[in-house]
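PT: before anyone asks, these are the final sequences, not the draft ones from last week. 230 residues across everything. Please model them as a single complex and drop the result in this thread when it's through.
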Amino acid sequence: AQKVTQAQTEISVVEKEDVTLDCVYETRDTTYYLFWYKQPPSGELVFLIRRNSFDEQNEISGRYSWNFQKSTSSFNFTITASQVVDSAVYFCALISGGGADGLTFGKGTHLIIQP
Amino acid sequence: NAGVTQTPKFRVLKTGQSMTLLCAQDMNHEYMYWYRQDPGMGLRLIHYSVGEGTTAKGEVPDGYNVSRLKKQNFLLGLESAAPSQTSVYFCASSYSSQRSYNEQFFGPGTRLTVL
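LR: through. Structure below.
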């Protein structure tokens, strides 16, 4: 069985602070893919990043960065110099070939950036 | 290029009524999915399809049926609605294959209330 745990239900920081969202996953498959999605207050789901299990390189995209560590089964997401527009619910998700072909989502982290 | 569209956007049903949610995508994707989102639960997979004429059960399929008669459309049916089916329903599509899972593109969601 697959599982994604986002232990932080809600995080509140002041604008310009750095913030890290944690994601821990479980799967028995050796080939799998990890994703992060953003859900702003308007409700749509916005794709942020995809990473496969064979690529442990960290990635940076502007103020966003991701740290993938297979040794600890974690795929954490950091926002540097946070902005009010970053306020949203962020979901970590997992998919692999061993189970259903849909994504297994974490319960999400509600990020609040205060001005 | 509309991406993934969902009809209707909102619906209120009475217990026992039936309805069909329509999802359409214009990206020629093989894979399509239906998820439901409940407060504090993240998104959970209801049913999915890996191609025209094929469907499969996800994590929470009970009370729902689906059909994929055309590649671009994926229908989700509720035969006898129950209050427990009050949720936001998201459709998604992707160009994944059995060997590689790419990002899923999500529709805007359908907010369903069952009284």
